[in-house]
Amino acid sequence: MKSFVFFSFLLCAISAQAQSDKYVAAMKKNLDLFDSAKTTQDFQTVANNFERIGDAEKTQWLPYYYAGLALTTSGWMDAKIDKDANSTRVNSLCDKAELIEKNADIYTIRNMAATQQMMVDPQTRWQTYGQQASGALEKAKQIDPNNPRIYYLQGQSVFNTPPAFGGGKDKAKPIFEKSIELFKKEQTKPLYPHWGQDQAEIMLSKCQ
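The chain above was modelled as a monomer; its predicted structure follows.
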């Protein structure tokens, strides 16, 4: 009986390891595709791939996160994208991710989705989507105040806000500096988000 139990446990362990290896391989393949993506269609294809990985795994939040990141990236680069429809899908992916794990990086994706919706018509949409965007970063800070991507995105918002409304490069500079300081301390695990430092350094150079 003990031998049977041990053998069953061994089979489960081997199966789990095989599934884990398959997951890691699929993630690495699609992260490479993400890095080489150039067009809206490329990013949407990558997003679809990541969502399928998430749906198959059921216990991993990272595939949904990267699917959302791919869609927000295409939202920034393509003016023709329907920002409301795109952001609705992004938030749906965030919902799936948060059923598995609630963390600061997911809220950074929500921030970008809301910001893109606000930028369709800032004057009329600020009260709704502007507050959603800033609220997402505040929730992210409550979960992990040392996440550098929070401050990169906050710095972006302040940088693009007119000085008359409390923004501008002088106000954004210390926020980007904090972001870069945290990036240098960040210890990322394999497959986990690590983007943002290069962008923060570029933005800091614009504040000089």
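Residues 26 and 53 are 8 Å apart (CA to CA).
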